[in-house]
Structure formats: C-alpha cells, structure tokens
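Team,

Forwarding the record for the chain on the shared tracking sheet. I've put the sequence and predicted structure together so nobody has to dig through attachments.
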Amino acid sequence: MSSRLFRFLFLSVTGFLLLITMVTFYRFGSSPTDENWFKNPPSLIYVTAPVPMPDGTNPIQTGDLITSINEMKVVFKDDLDAKLLESGKVLTVEIHRPTLDKRFTYNGVNGLDLQPRWRGVDPVAHVFDVTTGGASDRAGMKVGDLITTINGKTFKDVNEADLHLRQAQSGKTIEYEVLRDNQIITLHVTLANFGFPFALLLFVVCGMVFFGTGAFIALRRPETKGARLVGLYLLTMGFVIMATLIQRDPFPDWISIARGALISLCFFFSFAFFLHSTHYFPVERPDLIRRKWICFTGYGLALACTVSLPWANGVVSILLLIFGMVALVAGVMFFYRKGASSEYKMMSAPLRNGVLIAAIMTGIVIFLVAFANIFISFQNFGFAGIFLVFVPLSYLYTIGKFRLLNLDIRMRRNVQYYFASTGWALLAIAGLIWGLGQLPRAVSDVPTIRLTGASIEVLDETAGSDERQVFEKSVLMILGGVCLFVAWRLGRRVQGVIVRKFHREQYDYRRAGAELAEVMSKRLDMQTLAKGTTEKITSLMHLKRTGVMFFRGQHQCCLESHGFDGASWKNFCVENEGEIVGAFSAFTREFRVSELKEPLKTKLVAHEFQYVIPIRSKEKLIGALLVGEKRSESPFQREDLEFLGAAAKQASVAIENAFLYEELAEQERMKHELEIARRIQMASLPQTTPKIQGLDISGVSIPALEVGGDYYDFLNGDPNRLNVIVGDVSGKGTSAALYMSKVQGIMRSLHGFGLSPHELFVRTNTLLCQDMEKKSFVTAMGAFFKPEVREIILARAGHSPLFHYRHDSGLVQQVIPRRLGLGLNADGRFSEELEEQTLCYGQGDVFLFVTDGVTEAQRNGGEQFGEERLEHLLKTNFSLSAEHLRDRLVANLKEFAGNAHQHDDQTIVVVKAV
C-alpha cells in the first residue's frame, strides 16, 4: 500500500472514530446526571421496624432488606410468606443493610416477632454512592435510600430508572421519592447543564494521548511499516479508552450501536496491531517477520473474539476472550525473546517498562475500585488513566531518545521550563487558596485572647460575640499574612530549583565582563587564551558549545572548542581555512550562521553553531568567536549579543598581546637556541693550542652574529707536524654555521687518511657538491707545516691570501696560489684549478691566516681596515709572541671600527717560527 493511500485511509478512520468520540463525550456531559449511583436491590422485602434478638444483641434495623430465610433465598413478599409457614417459629435470617451495602446473618429470630415487622415494596433502586457536594448530596439524598419513583414514574429495574433520568432535561429539577426509615421522602434534585466526573475526564484525556500519539506517528511516517502499525495500535486503543466509560445515551440509535461495535473491534484488533508492530519497531526482527503464522493468528483471533463478544454470556466469558488475546501476545514475545538483537532489547526496554508500570498501577486501581471498596463508584475506574498514559509516553520517549523513524520529537528545554514554571505557579496558587480556605475553620477552634493594659486573658470562645468576631478577623489577617509569606518563600525556593535545572540563571553582565577580563589577562599564550576564553564564556552564558579561532594574516594560528569533541570541527576549520577567513571578514559585527553562503553555512549548522562574533583589531580580522545553543534552549537576547560583542573587544586586546608574547617568546627561544649553537660552535673550535717544537701557535674566531661561518682547525695527528685549516662559508648566521660544521666534520674525517692539502680539498669538494646549495660555497686555506725541515705545503680554495712575514728581509709577502671555492664545481675543473705550493721559512718568520672579515672590517664612514694596515701591523709587531700578536690585531680591529657594527665573521690564526 502506498503511503498516500495509507494516509487517506488512516485519516478517514481517525476522523470517524473522533466523530463518534465527540458525540459520545457531548452526550455524556450534557445528559442529566444526579451524581448518585444506584443498582437493583437484592430483595424487595423491607423491614418496617426493628426486630429484637433473644440474646439482646443489635436487632435487625428498619430499612434492612430480608434476603434469605433458613438459607433459602427470598426476594418477593410471597417468597417470605411461604418460608415462614414452612420454617416454624425460630429462624436463621440473612439481611442486606442498604446504608452499608453489606449482608448480615441473624440466628434464633422468632418468626412471630418478624412477621408484623416487614412488608413488600414495588421495584426500587438502591442508592449505594452519592458524590459529595453533588446535586443529589445537596438535595439531601443519602447512601441506603431506596428510590421508588423518578418524576412520578415507577420502574421495573434500574435500567428503566436510568432511562427516566436521561429523559429529563438538563438544568431542570427532578423529583425523587425515596424510602428511608420506612418513610417516603420527596427530594428535588437540580441537574447540571453540563457535567463530567473528574476521574472519567482523566480517562478521556489518557485516551486522547493514545489517540493523538498514534495519529502523529502514523501520519508523519506513513511510508514506514513500523510507524503504521504503532500508529494503528495506539489509535485503536485510544478510542477504546476514550469511549468505553462515557456511554450515556438517552435512547439507542445508530451512534450507540456503531460505538459498541467499534469498541469491540478496536479493542481486540489493538492487540493484533501491537503484536504485528513488534516485528518492525523499534527495529526490524527478521526472525518474527519470517513466521507469517504469528500475524495471521493474531488478526484471526482478534476477528474471532470480536464476532464472539455479542454472544458471550457473562463477565467470565468476556474475560476469557481478553485472556486469549493477551496470552497470544505474551506467548510470542516470551518464546521468541532470544531471537531479538541486543539493539532491539536496548531500545525496547523503555516500552517494556512503560507497559509494565501501566499494567501494575491499573491493576491496583481496579482492585481498589472493584474489590477493596475504597472507591465505590464505577466512574472512579477512570483514575487508571493516570498510569495508562505511560504507554504512549514510552513510545514517544523511545522514538526521541534513539531518533527512530527519522522523527525529532524532543521538547525543547525552554518549552519544558515554561511548562514547569507555569505548573508550579498554578500548584502554588491552588495550595495557597486551599490553605486560606482552611483558615476560618482552624480559627473557629481557637480560644479568644484578650489583651488588657495589665494582663492577657483567655476567654471562652462563645463569650462576647462582637469581641469574638474582631478576634477571629485579626487572627485571620495574621495567619493570612503568614501563609502569603510562606507561599512566597517556598515559591521562590522551588522556582530557583527550576531555574537552575533548566539553566535559566540571569548573569550580571558587569560581573561577567570582569571575570572574563580576568581570565584573558592571565593568559598570554594563544592556546591557553583560547581555552580559557571558551570555557569562561560557556560557563557564564550556560552554552552547549563554544568555539574560537585566532587568525594571523590569512591563516589560522589557533583553534579551540568547549562543550563537545572538537576533533571533526578542527579538521573542518583546517580544510576550509581560506573560505572561513574570507567569509568572516565580510562582517563587522555579530551575525547568524544562517547568513553565510553555502556550503560553509551547512557545515557550521552541522556543528550546531548559531552565531559568529568577529574579533577585530584596527579593522583587521584577528579571530572569531562561535557560540552554539544555550543549555536552556531559549533564544539569544539583545543583551546576550552585546555581551558577546564586548567579549570580542576584550579578546582583541588579549589576542594582540598574545601575538606579541608569542613573538617575544619565539625571539627568546631563538636567542636561547642560538646561544646554545654559539657555545657548541665555539666548543668545536680548537680549545687548546698544539705544542709543536719550533712553532708558536695561536688562533681565534669572532662571529659577527651569535654563530658564524668562519672556522679554523689544527689537524695535528702527528706530534711533529701541524696542519692549519682556515675556512669561510659564504653568508652569515645559522645557515653558514651549519655548513661550517659540515665542512669541519668532513675535513676532520678525511685528515685521518694522511692526505696532502690538495687531496684533502679535492675530496672535500666532492662530498660538498653532493648536497650543498648552488648559491653557497666555502673558501679555505690549508697549510701543512714540517718544522724539522722548516717547510710548509700550502693549498688555497678561493680564500684570502696568506700573509708571510720574512724575518731576514723584514717584508710581508702575500701568498696567493690559484684557487676555486669548495662546492662550486663537482667535475675535474676544481682539481685542475687547485694549486699546491711548497714554501720554506726561517726562524722568526710569521704566518698570518685571516678571513675577509678582517681585511674588510669597516668603520662608520665605510673605510675598510685593508691589507696595508694588516701588513703594517705584522711588520711592527713581529717580535711579539703568536698570542700577543693575535690579541694586538683584534684590539686594532676594534679600535679601527669604533662603534660600527661588525658585519662579518673574523678569524685569525698566527703561526710563528721560533
């Protein structure tokens, strides 16, 4: 069946059942009701005077009805006459006492004493209940009265009596003649225009909940088989509940006939619909769906019970039919319970609990009404509706909790709050009114207290009626004030609990702003600031979720969320970074997520965010605050958005400070790391000067920055040899220092092979060319000293010249072999261009190795130190030791530069022949 056809048929059935129910409800409420309940008496033999007992115990009372003589049932006058003739004088008499609606047995009754104290009466109706404060109670009717006529009409039984009552007009006065204490009393009962017992009204409301829930589920998801069956089950059961106890027709017609048939049909088929619905709801059960006989049996048995009901003889037969349907449903669910999946068991638990609560509590109500004589009136069966309503509510709860049938039926928390607040207010007002109504009765029992100038007197309450009235009014005023104060205090306390329960607390914006400012002022790093901001705003405004983004330029630099698992949200932010920054930049103040364009709007809505508050500094977007729904689920007010706007302004200052803090922290970190690198680099340079006979040696390297690209090394594996290496990596700073370390490591490794300067540089060049950037290169000077023969082997790879002071001539010679820098060429050209020279030296000669940072050192005017000054210094200070000569050169460089910044690394190595 298509969903459109099912919806049409379901609406048709729903409309017809609702029409029948409305007509039945109107007839019941508008038909005359005297607010008493009567039934056929067990006997028409009326005791007209007390019958004394031989043992002096309580006698048979006037108004009792004789029901049996010597255990033989009697109903009419002729029955009693016959029994008295047969029994003799001493009798066992059973009577029914209408005032108590109970039977009593008397032994040893004298027949001669009994015979003149009874008479037969025409058919009467025994009143066994009178509604307190109702129409009959106001007219003076009492429990135990025997109604003889209604509006002057007699009747054969209570059915005919009820018909006379219904034919009376609403709002009119009905005349009753009742037999009480062997006297006929006329009572005038004024009927209400419209009346409905409270208990039955509860039952009707319960049925409406069934009816409405079933219609809602079936009509919202007519394409789903589970929704169809659940809707049909709740709809049919709701009609049965609504229409069963409110049948009051003035005469039989097609409405009453159709209603009776529909009640029977709906009652039995509701069991079949319920059984069938368990195949598909809350989830499908293939094990039950495969067993087609279950559905056929359920619907077949429902049809058989419906057809058999009109021929059922007595209550027992009807109960057997009901038991058959219940047994089928319970048996199927019990025997096939193991086939249910764990998911089915978990989801169906609320349904089982709801049905179980409804069954137990309804059974208790029925017992109290039918057997315990606590609530005698038949209409009080309607109190069972309070508990039957758990059944449809359990279906709604299950659907809402597990999101079944694609229905979202959860009541929003702000609606729940209004219901709770309104309900408590109405309950408090009702309690206050009731309490104030009880005060006059309480005050009437209080003794009168008189205050005189010298004493306090307690008087008899009857003395001084005027004084008593003044006293009572005064006490009433005082107690009324106390009641109002107590009600006000209690109301505020309970309302406070409701407010906290539904997160409706009002926050002080100034205090909240101060707390937020305190949080922001204590958090300097970005991540801590973001986390503290989201947590505080979530707490202050009672939000479900909060998110924050910080931007540096066009990129996100920090993300944080609170109130939910933000992993997927953070992935979304990273993947859509550019789109987010561009979209948020278009807004200067808070805006709803719905104002964004697709697909960004859908993605943010999926993460349950409602508002975005841009965070700007000097018209530049530096962040965004995203807020979700309030825990109270109430809408955002203007004050809320203003507070968020103020929070964004506070956050902008904190974010700027955090940016500065991070920059400073980064600088400090870099400075610290460079300091460590400087120490490492300085430690990699020779820490001690080698002791070589015939040579005085000293060296120093002064980087222009924390680390530099200059280096020198003494490769003196042989105690009688000295290998001096001085190098300069192009550039300055960290990159140059790294390459310097690389070159130094390579040369130290290769030195162990006993290579000449030429071979050492060739192999070093080969290794450097493999992974050195093309824009970088290394210059180096290598000098291998042989002190025993006063000879030096020299190789120069693009480095500054070697300054050789000859003691015998007093001149300074620049040694400049052909060269090509390391790392510039990987083919054989480097080896061809690299020239190796051998020099001889004498005692007193001085060799000065420097990098270009020495000769090119500048003062503020731009003048360079130059090679001439270097040669002059060497000529004039040749007699100094190597260390002193080195220090003199460093001092002259500083004196020359003055306060000018050192722009390049400076390395000096002095080797003096002694």
